[in-house]
Fold:
Amino acid sequence: MSPPHKRPPESWTVRTSDSHVAQVTIPGALDHTRTFDVDVELRARISDTARMAELGLSLEIDGSRQWGRTIAGSTPGEIDGVEYHCRLVVQPGRDVRLRARAAVKQGALVALSLTAVESVEG
Structure:
C-alpha cells in the first residue's frame, strides 16, 4: 500500500511599503480544521531628529482587535520595528479575515508584512 499523499501547507502573505494596512482572507476548508502561524511585522525608518518617535502595530481577526502595541522609536536615523506572532485555528467552512494596521509617528514606513502559514502535522 502506498503512503498517503501529503499536501503542502497553505501560505498567505501580503507585504507593502506604501500602505499602513495589510489584509489577508484565509478561505475556509470544507472538511477539516486548520491551524496557522500568523506573523505581522512593521519596519520604519525613524527620523534623524525624532525624540518622540512611535511605532504602532495591531492585528485584527474578523474585525476584532486581537493584539496591539505602541512602542517608542529608539534608533533615530535607523530602521526600527515591531513584530507579533500567534497561532490561529480556522474552523471548517469559515473564512477568516486578518488585518494588520501600522502607525508611524516621526518616521516613515519601510515595510508592513502579514503572513499566515498552515501548520501541517505529520
Observations:
- The first strand starts at residue 11 and ends at 16.
